[in-house]
Amino acid sequence: MKINRPLSPHLTIHKPQLTSTPSIFHRISGAFSATMVLVSLLSSKVGHLSLTSENYYRYAFSLTNDLHWLILSLVNSTLSALCYHMSNGVRHLWWDLGFVLDLSRVYTSGILMLFRAARPAFMNLFRFFRL
């Protein structure tokens, strides 16, 4: 006898909550930040293949001249993801230490965490558009 039902609850069944959504975005922001660090390290090593500083500076200068807005956008999005990841990590450390575990404080700490992450991101955006 075959029962026609899903194996596990799907995202369409559950409403997004302030307790589960930051956890999901914490993982996404951590993966994005790690990927961007890896890409930046690998792109800096491409210039070192010639083993001369003149060719490396020529490579870096042409990259920053041609893709100025793309590079600044990636840096800004990486900084925003890092700010979010760090502020949510501090929130998780509070939970590990046993603070703010009742439900009302969990929601308050979630909202405060979002404001703590948004402040440096917006400050960087203002600096980004002033250039």
TrEMBL record:
<keyword id="KW-0479">Metal-binding</keyword>
<dbReference type="GO" id="GO:0009055">
    <property type="term" value="F:electron transfer activity"/>
</dbReference>
<dbReference type="GO" id="GO:0006121">
    <property type="term" value="P:mitochondrial electron transport, succinate to ubiquinone"/>
</dbReference>
<keyword id="KW-0812">Transmembrane</keyword>
<feature type="binding site" description="axial binding residue">
    <location>
        <position position="85"/>
    </location>
    <ligand>
        <name>heme</name>
    </ligand>
</feature>
<keyword id="KW-0408">Iron</keyword>
<dbReference type="GO" id="GO:0006099">
    <property type="term" value="P:tricarboxylic acid cycle"/>
</dbReference>
<dbReference type="InterPro" id="IPR018495">
    <property type="entry name" value="Succ_DH_cyt_bsu_CS"/>
</dbReference>
<keyword id="KW-1133">Transmembrane helix</keyword>
<keyword id="KW-0496">Mitochondrion</keyword>
<keyword id="KW-0349">Heme</keyword>
<dbReference type="InterPro" id="IPR000701">
    <property type="entry name" value="SuccDH_FuR_B_TM-su"/>
</dbReference>
<dbReference type="GO" id="GO:0005743">
    <property type="term" value="C:mitochondrial inner membrane"/>
</dbReference>
<dbReference type="InterPro" id="IPR034804">
    <property type="entry name" value="SQR/QFR_C/D"/>
</dbReference>
<keyword id="KW-0472">Membrane</keyword>
<dbReference type="GO" id="GO:0046872">
    <property type="term" value="F:metal ion binding"/>
</dbReference>
<dbReference type="Pfam" id="PF01127">
    <property type="entry name" value="Sdh_cyt"/>
</dbReference>
<dbReference type="InterPro" id="IPR014314">
    <property type="entry name" value="Succ_DH_cytb556"/>
</dbReference>
<protein>
    <submittedName>
        <fullName>Succinate dehydrogenase cytochrome subunit 3</fullName>
    </submittedName>
</protein>
